[in-house]
Amino acid sequence: MQSAKLPSAKKIDYLLIAPIVALFVFGLFWLDYETKSISDLFKAENLVAFVLYFAPTVCLCYLLHYRFSKSSGRAASIITALLIGIPSASIGLIAVFLLIKNS
């Protein structure tokens, strides 16, 4: 049985994308009006929300980086993946949550 290999993007690139996305998601939660201190970010409901935002966002950024790494340089593909992936995933997730709430 063969393992899947990512041909053009290095593994370190994927390890760099995850913390950047995590910092963005924590920053998004920090902007929430109910957040008064850093300890509020680590409450159970915020950690569940963190996973709901983090997982799709990081997956989208990984896919975009994989796609862009074939045609552009390493740094350019990481930056482009983050600049496109983070806002797209955030807007998409908020839209899905609003659709679920209103249906």
What is the overall number of helices? 3
Envelope shape: globular
Please estimate the helix content: over 70%
Class derived from helix and strand content? mainly alpha
How confident overall, as mean pLDDT? 87
Q: What does the radius of gyration come to? A: 16 Å
Report, as a whole number of angstroms, the end-to-end distance.
44 Å
Biggest sheet overview: none
Query: Could you give the count of β-strands?
Result: 0
Strand percent estimate: under 5%
- SSE pattern: HHH
Identify the quaternary structure here: single chain
Question: Ranges with pLDDT <50 over ≥5 residues?
Answer: none
Description:
The radius of gyration is 16 Å and the shape is globular. The model has no long low-confidence stretch (mean pLDDT 87). The protein is 73% helix and 0% strand. It has helices at 11-30, 44-69, 74-102. It has 103 residues and is mainly alpha-helical.
